[in-house]
Amino acid sequence: MSVTKSGQMNALRKMRAGAGLSFESAPVPAIGPTDVLVRVTAASICGTDLHIYGWDRWSQGRIKPPVTLGHEFSGIVESVGEEVTAVKAGDKVSAEMHLNCGHCHQCRLGEAHICQNLRIIGIDRDGAFAELVKIPASNIWKLDPAIPEHYGAILDPLGNAVHTVLAGEIAGKTVLVTGCGPIGLMSIVVAKACGSSTVFATEINPQRRAMARKMGADVVLDPSSGNAAKQILADTSNTGVDVLLEMSGNPTAIQQGFAALRAGGRASLLGIPTESVPLDLVNDVIFKGATVQGIYGRRMYGTWVQMTALLKAGRLNLEPLFGERTSLEKFEDAFKLLRGGLAGKILMYPDGVPH
Ligand code: NAD
Ligand code: ZN
Predict the structure, then answer these.
(1) How remote is the CA of residue 103 from the centroid of ligand 2, in Å?
(2) Rounded distance from Cα 254 to ligand 1 centre (Å)
(3) 100, 252, 272, 293, best to mutate for ligand 1 pocket (most atoms within 8 Å of CB)
(4) CATH number of the CATH domain containing 206
(5) DSSP assigned state of 131
(6) Which of 29, 37, 129, 256 has a CA positioned 20 to 30 A from the CA of residue 248?
(7) Is residue 76 part of a domain?
(8) Could you tell me the distance, in angstroms and rounded to a whole number, from the CA of residue 290 to the centre of ligand 1?
(9) Is residue 304 part of a domain?
(10) Is residue 313 part of a domain?
(11) In this structure, are 22 and 126 located in the same domain?
Protein backbone atom coordinates (compact mmCIF):
# COMPACT_ATOMS: atom_id res chain seq x y z
CA MET A 1 0.00 0.00 0.00
CA SER A 2 1.38 3.43 -0.91
CA VAL A 3 1.31 5.17 2.42
CA THR A 4 1.70 8.80 1.59
CA LYS A 5 -0.67 8.92 -1.40
CA SER A 6 -3.60 7.17 0.25
CA GLY A 7 -3.11 8.57 3.77
CA GLN A 8 -3.56 4.97 4.86
CA MET A 9 -1.04 2.38 6.02
CA ASN A 10 -0.93 -1.25 7.09
CA ALA A 11 -1.07 -1.94 10.81
CA LEU A 12 -1.51 -4.85 13.19
CA ARG A 13 -4.43 -3.88 15.43
CA LYS A 14 -6.69 -5.00 18.22
CA MET A 15 -10.04 -3.99 16.77
CA ARG A 16 -12.41 -5.24 19.45
CA ALA A 17 -12.51 -6.76 22.94
CA GLY A 18 -11.64 -10.45 22.56
CA ALA A 19 -8.81 -12.73 21.46
CA GLY A 20 -6.84 -12.15 18.28
CA LEU A 21 -5.40 -9.30 16.22
CA SER A 22 -6.02 -8.18 12.69
CA PHE A 23 -3.96 -6.82 9.83
CA GLU A 24 -5.79 -3.62 8.92
CA SER A 25 -5.62 -0.47 6.91
CA ALA A 26 -5.29 2.47 9.33
CA PRO A 27 -4.81 6.21 8.90
CA VAL A 28 -1.21 7.48 8.86
CA PRO A 29 -0.74 9.25 12.24
CA ALA A 30 -0.91 13.05 12.09
CA ILE A 31 2.05 14.59 13.91
CA GLY A 32 2.14 17.71 16.07
CA PRO A 33 4.99 20.26 16.37
CA THR A 34 7.00 18.15 18.85
CA ASP A 35 6.38 14.72 17.29
CA VAL A 36 8.45 12.51 15.06
CA LEU A 37 6.94 10.22 12.41
CA VAL A 38 9.04 7.07 12.05
CA ARG A 39 8.92 4.53 9.22
CA VAL A 40 9.19 1.21 11.04
CA THR A 41 11.81 -1.06 9.46
CA ALA A 42 11.74 -3.88 12.05
CA ALA A 43 9.51 -4.63 15.02
CA SER A 44 9.76 -7.31 17.64
CA ILE A 45 7.06 -9.14 19.61
CA CYS A 46 7.03 -8.85 23.41
CA GLY A 47 5.38 -11.20 25.92
CA THR A 48 2.91 -8.39 26.61
CA ASP A 49 1.74 -8.54 22.97
CA LEU A 50 0.96 -12.24 23.51
CA HIS A 51 -1.16 -11.34 26.56
CA ILE A 52 -3.03 -8.72 24.53
CA TYR A 53 -3.50 -11.15 21.65
CA GLY A 54 -4.95 -13.72 24.08
CA TRP A 55 -7.07 -11.03 25.81
CA ASP A 56 -6.21 -12.05 29.39
CA ARG A 57 -7.61 -10.34 32.48
CA TRP A 58 -4.89 -7.69 32.49
CA SER A 59 -5.56 -6.81 28.82
CA GLN A 60 -9.30 -6.60 29.41
CA GLY A 61 -8.74 -3.97 32.10
CA ARG A 62 -6.10 -2.00 30.19
CA ILE A 63 -6.54 -2.11 26.42
CA LYS A 64 -9.09 0.16 24.75
CA PRO A 65 -9.64 -1.06 21.16
CA PRO A 66 -9.12 -0.09 18.45
CA VAL A 67 -5.38 0.23 19.00
CA THR A 68 -2.25 -0.66 17.05
CA LEU A 69 0.12 -2.84 19.08
CA GLY A 70 3.93 -2.86 19.11
CA HIS A 71 6.45 -1.23 21.43
CA GLU A 72 9.73 -2.81 20.30
CA PHE A 73 11.00 -1.42 17.00
CA SER A 74 13.62 0.39 14.99
CA GLY A 75 13.06 2.61 12.00
CA ILE A 76 13.95 5.64 9.95
CA VAL A 77 12.64 9.14 10.58
CA GLU A 78 10.08 9.99 7.88
CA SER A 79 9.26 13.53 9.00
CA VAL A 80 9.43 15.76 12.07
CA GLY A 81 7.23 18.46 13.61
CA GLU A 82 8.41 22.06 13.22
CA GLU A 83 9.83 22.31 16.76
CA VAL A 84 11.87 19.10 16.58
CA THR A 85 15.63 19.59 16.44
CA ALA A 86 16.98 16.33 17.91
CA VAL A 87 16.51 14.23 14.74
CA LYS A 88 15.80 14.77 11.06
CA ALA A 89 14.32 12.78 8.19
CA GLY A 90 16.54 9.81 7.33
CA ASP A 91 17.97 9.30 10.83
CA LYS A 92 17.93 5.74 12.19
CA VAL A 93 16.06 5.59 15.49
CA SER A 94 14.34 3.56 18.13
CA ALA A 95 12.32 4.95 21.06
CA GLU A 96 11.49 4.70 24.72
CA MET A 97 7.80 3.79 24.54
CA HIS A 98 6.98 4.66 28.15
CA LEU A 99 5.58 8.19 28.17
CA ASN A 100 6.05 10.08 31.41
CA CYS A 101 4.05 13.14 32.39
CA GLY A 102 6.98 15.37 33.40
CA HIS A 103 5.17 16.98 36.32
CA CYS A 104 4.36 14.29 38.93
CA HIS A 105 6.44 13.85 42.09
CA GLN A 106 8.71 11.14 40.64
CA CYS A 107 9.18 12.94 37.32
CA ARG A 108 10.29 16.01 39.26
CA LEU A 109 12.79 13.82 41.12
CA GLY A 110 14.28 12.48 37.88
CA GLU A 111 12.58 9.10 38.25
CA ALA A 112 10.53 9.26 35.09
CA HIS A 113 10.48 5.45 34.72
CA ILE A 114 8.11 5.27 37.70
CA CYS A 115 5.98 8.26 36.68
CA GLN A 116 2.53 8.31 38.31
CA ASN A 117 0.85 8.92 34.97
CA LEU A 118 2.81 6.52 32.80
CA ARG A 119 1.33 5.64 29.41
CA ILE A 120 2.78 3.22 26.92
CA ILE A 121 2.86 3.56 23.13
CA GLY A 122 1.61 0.29 21.62
CA ILE A 123 -0.60 -0.37 24.66
CA ASP A 124 -2.42 2.85 25.57
CA ARG A 125 -2.05 4.44 22.14
CA ASP A 126 -1.13 3.36 18.62
CA GLY A 127 2.21 1.59 18.43
CA ALA A 128 4.86 0.31 16.06
CA PHE A 129 3.28 -2.77 14.45
CA ALA A 130 2.59 -0.50 11.49
CA GLU A 131 4.33 1.11 8.56
CA LEU A 132 4.56 4.38 10.47
CA VAL A 133 4.47 5.31 14.15
CA LYS A 134 4.20 8.69 15.88
CA ILE A 135 6.67 9.27 18.75
CA PRO A 136 7.16 12.43 20.84
CA ALA A 137 10.64 13.82 20.14
CA SER A 138 11.43 13.56 23.87
CA ASN A 139 11.23 9.77 23.58
CA ILE A 140 13.12 9.25 20.32
CA TRP A 141 16.46 7.45 20.67
CA LYS A 142 18.83 8.13 17.81
CA LEU A 143 20.67 4.91 17.01
CA ASP A 144 24.42 4.92 17.06
CA PRO A 145 25.59 3.82 13.59
CA ALA A 146 27.33 0.84 15.24
CA ILE A 147 23.96 -0.62 16.30
CA PRO A 148 22.36 -2.86 13.66
CA GLU A 149 18.67 -2.60 12.84
CA HIS A 150 17.75 -5.93 14.50
CA TYR A 151 19.42 -4.89 17.77
CA GLY A 152 17.67 -1.51 17.47
CA ALA A 153 14.36 -3.41 17.46
CA ILE A 154 14.95 -5.05 20.86
CA LEU A 155 16.32 -2.16 22.90
CA ASP A 156 13.16 -2.09 25.02
CA PRO A 157 13.63 -5.59 26.56
CA LEU A 158 17.42 -5.28 26.47
CA GLY A 159 16.98 -2.09 28.48
CA ASN A 160 14.96 -4.06 31.05
CA ALA A 161 17.89 -6.46 31.37
CA VAL A 162 20.52 -3.70 31.56
CA HIS A 163 18.45 -1.79 34.12
CA THR A 164 18.11 -4.89 36.33
CA VAL A 165 21.72 -6.08 36.08
CA LEU A 166 23.17 -2.62 36.71
CA ALA A 167 20.80 -1.72 39.56
CA GLY A 168 23.64 -2.61 41.95
CA GLU A 169 27.24 -3.85 41.92
CA ILE A 170 27.81 -6.71 39.49
CA ALA A 171 31.56 -6.97 38.77
CA GLY A 172 33.11 -9.99 40.48
CA LYS A 173 29.72 -11.09 41.84
CA THR A 174 28.03 -14.47 41.66
CA VAL A 175 24.63 -14.14 40.02
CA LEU A 176 21.45 -16.20 39.76
CA VAL A 177 19.05 -15.52 36.90
CA THR A 178 15.66 -17.17 37.54
CA GLY A 179 13.72 -17.57 34.28
CA CYS A 180 15.40 -17.66 30.88
CA GLY A 181 12.86 -16.00 28.61
CA PRO A 182 14.27 -13.34 26.29
CA ILE A 183 14.93 -10.88 29.12
CA GLY A 184 16.52 -13.48 31.41
CA LEU A 185 18.74 -14.59 28.52
CA MET A 186 19.76 -11.02 27.80
CA SER A 187 20.52 -10.54 31.49
CA ILE A 188 22.96 -13.45 31.39
CA VAL A 189 24.84 -11.77 28.54
CA VAL A 190 24.79 -8.35 30.22
CA ALA A 191 25.94 -9.73 33.60
CA LYS A 192 28.84 -11.56 31.94
CA ALA A 193 29.79 -8.47 29.92
CA CYS A 194 29.84 -6.40 33.11
CA GLY A 195 32.25 -8.71 34.87
CA SER A 196 30.08 -10.97 37.02
CA SER A 197 31.84 -14.17 38.07
CA THR A 198 29.71 -17.35 38.05
CA VAL A 199 26.26 -16.93 36.51
CA PHE A 200 23.70 -19.55 37.55
CA ALA A 201 20.42 -19.78 35.64
CA THR A 202 17.22 -21.69 36.33
CA GLU A 203 14.56 -22.43 33.73
CA ILE A 204 11.83 -25.06 33.46
CA ASN A 205 11.78 -25.20 29.64
CA PRO A 206 14.59 -27.43 28.25
CA GLN A 207 14.90 -25.44 25.00
CA ARG A 208 15.40 -22.27 26.97
CA ARG A 209 17.93 -23.99 29.24
CA ALA A 210 19.92 -24.89 26.12
CA MET A 211 19.69 -21.27 25.04
CA ALA A 212 20.93 -20.10 28.47
CA ARG A 213 24.06 -22.22 28.03
CA LYS A 214 24.56 -20.80 24.56
CA MET A 215 24.32 -17.27 25.92
CA GLY A 216 27.02 -17.81 28.50
CA ALA A 217 25.45 -19.02 31.76
CA ASP A 218 28.02 -21.08 33.69
CA VAL A 219 25.59 -23.37 35.53
CA VAL A 220 22.10 -24.01 34.14
CA LEU A 221 19.63 -25.81 36.37
CA ASP A 222 16.17 -27.33 36.01
CA PRO A 223 14.25 -26.03 39.05
CA SER A 224 11.50 -28.66 38.71
CA SER A 225 13.48 -31.11 40.86
CA GLY A 226 13.30 -28.65 43.77
CA ASN A 227 17.06 -28.99 44.35
CA ALA A 228 18.28 -25.97 42.41
CA ALA A 229 18.70 -23.74 45.47
CA LYS A 230 20.55 -26.55 47.30
CA GLN A 231 22.95 -27.00 44.41
CA ILE A 232 23.61 -23.27 44.16
CA LEU A 233 24.37 -23.16 47.90
CA ALA A 234 26.71 -26.14 47.52
CA ASP A 235 28.49 -24.46 44.58
CA THR A 236 28.99 -21.25 46.56
CA SER A 237 30.52 -22.81 49.70
CA ASN A 238 27.10 -22.77 51.39
CA THR A 239 26.97 -18.99 51.03
CA GLY A 240 24.50 -18.30 48.23
CA VAL A 241 24.76 -15.90 45.32
CA ASP A 242 25.55 -12.21 45.68
CA VAL A 243 22.86 -11.13 43.24
CA LEU A 244 19.44 -12.53 42.31
CA LEU A 245 17.99 -11.33 39.00
CA GLU A 246 14.36 -12.51 39.02
CA MET A 247 13.17 -12.78 35.42
CA SER A 248 10.25 -15.22 35.55
CA GLY A 249 7.47 -13.76 37.69
CA ASN A 250 6.87 -17.33 38.86
CA PRO A 251 6.21 -17.64 42.63
CA THR A 252 8.27 -20.84 42.99
CA ALA A 253 11.18 -19.27 41.11
CA ILE A 254 11.01 -16.21 43.34
CA GLN A 255 11.04 -18.34 46.50
CA GLN A 256 13.90 -20.49 45.21
CA GLY A 257 15.77 -17.35 44.21
CA PHE A 258 15.56 -15.91 47.72
CA ALA A 259 16.58 -19.26 49.21
CA ALA A 260 19.74 -19.18 47.06
CA LEU A 261 20.59 -15.54 47.88
CA ARG A 262 23.45 -14.95 50.31
CA ALA A 263 23.08 -12.85 53.45
CA GLY A 264 23.75 -9.27 52.43
CA GLY A 265 22.86 -9.99 48.83
CA ARG A 266 20.80 -8.02 46.32
CA ALA A 267 17.50 -9.26 44.87
CA SER A 268 16.38 -7.33 41.81
CA LEU A 269 12.87 -8.31 40.77
CA LEU A 270 11.74 -7.66 37.18
CA GLY A 271 9.41 -10.63 36.52
CA ILE A 272 5.74 -9.83 37.03
CA PRO A 273 3.75 -12.41 39.04
CA THR A 274 0.04 -12.67 38.24
CA GLU A 275 -0.82 -13.53 41.85
CA SER A 276 0.42 -12.64 45.35
CA VAL A 277 3.63 -14.42 46.25
CA PRO A 278 4.18 -15.78 49.78
CA LEU A 279 7.71 -14.93 50.96
CA ASP A 280 9.59 -15.92 54.10
CA LEU A 281 10.44 -12.31 54.93
CA VAL A 282 12.07 -13.20 58.24
CA ASN A 283 14.58 -15.70 56.92
CA ASP A 284 14.94 -14.60 53.32
CA VAL A 285 15.03 -10.83 53.67
CA ILE A 286 15.25 -9.50 57.25
CA PHE A 287 17.72 -11.90 58.87
CA LYS A 288 19.65 -11.94 55.60
CA GLY A 289 19.94 -8.17 55.50
CA ALA A 290 19.02 -8.49 51.84
CA THR A 291 18.43 -5.53 49.54
CA VAL A 292 15.25 -6.04 47.53
CA GLN A 293 14.54 -3.87 44.51
CA GLY A 294 11.57 -3.70 42.20
CA ILE A 295 12.65 -2.92 38.65
CA TYR A 296 10.31 -1.27 36.17
CA GLY A 297 11.06 -0.29 32.59
CA ARG A 298 14.29 1.49 31.78
CA ARG A 299 15.77 4.52 33.54
CA MET A 300 15.14 7.49 31.29
CA TYR A 301 17.65 7.80 29.92
CA GLY A 302 20.54 6.45 31.98
CA THR A 303 19.75 2.88 30.95
CA TRP A 304 19.71 3.86 27.27
CA VAL A 305 23.16 5.45 27.59
CA GLN A 306 24.59 2.34 29.33
CA MET A 307 22.98 -0.01 26.81
CA THR A 308 24.30 1.95 23.85
CA ALA A 309 27.80 2.00 25.32
CA LEU A 310 27.77 -1.77 25.89
CA LEU A 311 26.48 -2.46 22.37
CA LYS A 312 28.92 -0.03 20.80
CA ALA A 313 31.82 -1.68 22.61
CA GLY A 314 30.71 -4.99 21.08
CA ARG A 315 30.18 -6.52 24.53
CA LEU A 316 26.72 -7.97 23.97
CA ASN A 317 26.39 -10.86 21.52
CA LEU A 318 22.65 -11.44 21.30
CA GLU A 319 22.66 -13.20 17.92
CA PRO A 320 21.43 -16.58 19.28
CA LEU A 321 18.25 -14.80 20.44
CA PHE A 322 17.10 -13.88 16.97
CA GLY A 323 14.84 -16.50 15.44
CA GLU A 324 12.23 -16.17 12.73
CA ARG A 325 11.90 -13.10 10.58
CA THR A 326 8.56 -12.51 8.93
CA SER A 327 6.36 -9.86 7.35
CA LEU A 328 3.89 -7.97 9.53
CA GLU A 329 1.10 -9.52 7.48
CA LYS A 330 2.14 -13.05 8.52
CA PHE A 331 1.91 -12.20 12.22
CA GLU A 332 -0.22 -15.27 13.04
CA ASP A 333 2.72 -17.63 12.41
CA ALA A 334 4.98 -15.55 14.62
CA PHE A 335 2.50 -15.38 17.51
CA LYS A 336 1.90 -19.13 17.27
CA LEU A 337 5.63 -19.86 17.50
CA LEU A 338 6.01 -17.61 20.54
CA ARG A 339 3.03 -19.13 22.31
CA GLY A 340 4.78 -22.47 21.87
CA GLY A 341 7.53 -21.32 24.24
CA LEU A 342 10.21 -20.38 21.73
CA ALA A 343 12.79 -18.29 23.56
CA GLY A 344 13.93 -16.07 20.75
CA LYS A 345 12.85 -12.69 19.52
CA ILE A 346 10.81 -12.79 16.32
CA LEU A 347 11.22 -9.81 14.05
CA MET A 348 8.39 -8.56 11.85
CA TYR A 349 8.97 -6.34 8.85
CA PRO A 350 6.19 -3.99 7.74
CA ASP A 351 7.51 -3.97 4.17
CA GLY A 352 7.99 -7.72 4.17
CA VAL A 353 11.75 -7.92 3.66
CA PRO A 354 14.70 -7.95 6.04
CA HIS A 355 16.95 -4.96 5.42
P1 NAD B 1 8.96 -14.95 29.50
O2 NAD B 1 7.61 -15.28 30.00
O3 NAD B 1 9.32 -15.27 28.09
O4 NAD B 1 10.06 -15.63 30.45
C5 NAD B 1 9.81 -16.14 31.71
C6 NAD B 1 10.56 -17.45 31.81
O7 NAD B 1 10.46 -17.96 33.13
C8 NAD B 1 9.99 -18.54 30.89
O9 NAD B 1 11.00 -19.03 30.05
C10 NAD B 1 9.47 -19.59 31.86
O11 NAD B 1 9.59 -20.91 31.35
C12 NAD B 1 10.40 -19.36 33.04
N13 NAD B 1 9.90 -19.94 34.30
C14 NAD B 1 8.62 -20.18 34.70
N15 NAD B 1 8.59 -20.77 35.90
C16 NAD B 1 9.87 -20.90 36.30
C17 NAD B 1 10.50 -21.43 37.47
N18 NAD B 1 9.78 -21.93 38.46
N19 NAD B 1 11.83 -21.38 37.53
C20 NAD B 1 12.57 -20.85 36.53
N21 NAD B 1 12.04 -20.35 35.41
C22 NAD B 1 10.71 -20.37 35.29
O23 NAD B 1 9.14 -13.42 29.78
P24 NAD B 1 10.21 -12.31 29.34
O25 NAD B 1 9.67 -11.58 28.16
O26 NAD B 1 11.59 -12.84 29.28
O27 NAD B 1 10.03 -11.35 30.60
C28 NAD B 1 10.44 -11.81 31.88
C29 NAD B 1 9.50 -11.35 32.96
O30 NAD B 1 9.61 -9.93 33.12
C31 NAD B 1 8.01 -11.59 32.71
O32 NAD B 1 7.39 -11.89 33.95
C33 NAD B 1 7.52 -10.24 32.20
O34 NAD B 1 6.15 -10.06 32.45
C35 NAD B 1 8.34 -9.31 33.03
N36 NAD B 1 8.60 -7.98 32.49
C37 NAD B 1 8.74 -7.00 33.40
C38 NAD B 1 9.05 -5.71 32.98
C39 NAD B 1 9.22 -4.65 34.01
O40 NAD B 1 9.41 -3.49 33.61
N41 NAD B 1 9.21 -4.97 35.28
C42 NAD B 1 9.21 -5.43 31.62
C43 NAD B 1 9.08 -6.47 30.71
C44 NAD B 1 8.78 -7.74 31.15
ZN1 ZN C 1 5.19 11.76 35.93
Answers:
(1) 5
(2) 11
(3) 272
(4) 3.40.50.720
(5) S
(6) 129
(7) yes
(8) 22
(9) no
(10) no
(11) yes
Q: Any idea how long the chain is?
A: 355
Residues 98, 120 share a domain: yes
Q: Are residues 332 and 254 in the same domain?
A: no
State residue 20's pLDDT score.
97
Q: Same structural domain for residues 244 and 145?
A: no
Residue 287 shares a structural domain with residue 326: no
pLDDT in tens, 207-263: 999 999 999 999 999 999 889 999 999 999 999 999 999 999 999 999 999 999 999
Query: What are the residues whose beta carbons fall under 8 Å from the beta carbon of 318, sequence distance 6 or more?
Result: 151, 154, 158, 186, 189, 215
Same domain, 102 and 125: yes
Is residue 355 a part of any domain in this protein? no
How many domains would you assign to the chain? 2
Residue 354: predicted pLDDT: 73
pLDDT tens across 265-314, in order? 999 999 999 999 999 999 999 999 999 999 999 999 999 999 999 999 99
Instruction: Kindly state whether residues 212 and 140 are assigned to the same domain.
Output: no
Same domain, 117 and 192: no
What ligand 1 atom has the least distance to the C-alpha of 294?
A: 41
Ligand nearest to the CA of 117: 2
Residue 117 Cα to ligand 1 middle (Å):
25
Q: List the domain range (segments joined by +) for residue 179.
A: 161-294
Q: What's the half-sphere exposure (Cβ side, CA atoms, 13 Å) at 156?
A: 25
What are the residues whose beta carbon lies below 5 Å from ligand 2 (ion)?
100-101, 104, 107, 115
What pLDDT is recorded for position 6? Answer: 85
Enumerate residues 6+ apart whose C-beta is below 8 A from 243.
168, 169, 170, 173, 174, 175, 176, 191, 196, 265, 266, 267, 268
Of 48, 178, 308, 326, the active-site residue reads 48
Q: Is the CB of 164 under 6 A from ligand 1?
A: no
Identify the CATH number of the domain in which residue 15 sits. Answer: 3.90.180.10
Q: Is the CB of 180 under 6 A from ligand 1?
A: yes
- Contacts for 270 with CB less than 8 Å, ≥ 6 apart: 160, 163, 164, 183, 245, 246, 247, 295
